């Protein structure tokens, strides 16, 4: 296991709880990009696949945890999009 890879995943992961909280409380997508979220999700999927196929170690759990946080933020993005479109009707 690389301590540097683990630290990278930890520091990347520190930003997502704030983003999730902002999305949940504001019910707004201001400053958010669904494309960015989908690209980040794809990156974590490929990282998880790499860990499974070539370099399995405990860092995989950080990849999975970060993936889950981005997935939650993506779901909140969709919820906020639907809510904002219903308000304009």
From TrEMBL:
Keywords, alphabetical: Membrane, Transmembrane, Transmembrane helix
Record protein name field: PQ loop repeat protein
Transmembrane stretches, start-end: 6-22, 34-54, 60-78
